[in-house]
């Protein structure tokens, strides 16, 4: 299973920690950058993660900026993407189980690395429940086509 990871300059260290953690769990990571500490624009990396997931190059994506907000907004503009900003594991888990999120976002300036690992693990280990949730997720996705 492939996980695309993208981030802005605020999240270089966090990205490396999460990359190692995700690889340690047996996933293949596609690093879409940035790998420079120079100030950059988070929409570029949110879009890259969104396109990698929507295009099938990756199964899921992780997007990290200072708050997780900007990069998730950008990823969500790509058709087919359901990016959720999560600052704790419960929301991360439920975002998969109920909302079938396909991009996890969080803030490198908001959560510490140990909490970020717990969030990532809860998200990766959870599975979409389908059923009534499928109908609701389909309703969300229909908005893209209206
Ligand atoms: C960069 O300063 C910051 O705005 C960005 O990382 C992110 O938090 C935006 O949502």
Automatic annotation (TrEMBL):
**Keywords of this protein's UniProt record, alphabetized?**
Isomerase
Q: Which residues form a coiled coil?
A: none
Molecular functions (GO terms): ribose-5-phosphate isomerase activity
Catalytic center at which residues?
Answer: 65, 98
The transmembrane segments are none
Where, in this chain's numbering, is D-ribulose 5-phosphate bound? 8-9, 66-70, 99, 109, 132, 136
Give the EC number(s) listed in the UniProt record: 5.3.1.6
Q: Which GO terms describe its biological process?
A: D-allose catabolic process; pentose-phosphate shunt, non-oxidative branch
Q: A Pfam family name for this chain?
A: LacAB_rpiB
What does the similarity note say? Belongs to the LacAB/RpiB family.
Q: What is this protein called?
A: Ribose 5-phosphate isomerase B
> Whose protein is this, by species?
Enterocloster aldenensis
């Amino acid at each position: 299973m492939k996980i695309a990871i993208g981030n802005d300059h605020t999240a270089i260290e966090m990205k490396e920690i999460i990359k190692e953690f995700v690889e340690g769990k047996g996933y293949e990571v596609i690093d879409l950058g940035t790998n420079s500490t120079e100030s950059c624009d988070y929409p570029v990396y949110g879009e890259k993660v969104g396109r990698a997931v929507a295009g099938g190059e990756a199964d899921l994506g992780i997007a990290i900026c200072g708050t997780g907000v900007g990069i998730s907004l950008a990823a969500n503009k790509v058709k087919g993407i359901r990016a959720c900003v999560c600052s704790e594991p419960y929301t991360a888990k439920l975002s998969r189980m109920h909302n079938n999120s396909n991009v996890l976002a969080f803030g490198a300036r908001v959560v510490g690395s140990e909490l970020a690992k717990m969030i990532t693990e809860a998200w990766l280990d959870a599975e979409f429940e389908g059923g009534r949730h499928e109908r609701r997720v389909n309703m969300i996705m229909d908005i893209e086509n209206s």
